[in-house]
Amino acid sequence: MRIFLVAWLLSFFASVAGADDGRGIAPLQMLPAPPFTAVLSNDILFLDDAPSIETFLTGLDGQPPDWTAVYGSGHHDPGHDDRLFTLNRERDAGRAGNPSLLRRIAFRWSGELSQFDPETRGFSVALGPVFTSTGWGQVRFKPDDLPGELKVIPPEGALEGLQRELSAGKVVELAVIIIGKLVPEESIVYDFSHDQEGLGLIMPFVRVEEIRYVLVPQG
Question: Model's pTM, two decimal places?
Fold first, then answer.
């Protein structure tokens, strides 16, 4: 999927916040195949599928919301917004002091190589979210304090090949692994999908500490 609009918006807001601090510049790590956990240390919990995400959410909030009751008759229901607001405030209060708030976690977004920078011999990265369907609802991790400059530096042996692929009009996709901790004050936001009526949307907010760029060769 094309994700340049998302990448532009993210870069715009991050640059306004003054987040160009070098955290978004990292070497390209190449794996012969997943799992992506190969690029993470053992103390980092990688949340990349429904079972791992559901277990993590259970440890934080106990059980999924009653989405049907919260949704009511839809967005035009007079009590809809109040019920959603109450759900979020109750969940925020309930997870206060939970040790999982201090756990280093990682999640994956989708990336594409973009413009080449001769000075750093690296590529800008266009970035877009990954949605995961779970028993709790649809989950979309959201990075907080995302660096404004996202750039990946490939190994010298791979640089020319990647340049040729981009010059030929090919899309070079990579996994962008974002590492950090949940934002303590408002770590998870519950909402509803704008694409599917009544589908619960769960957005864990993660304060970004590190970023890993991973390329898995396509067969």
Answer: 0.88
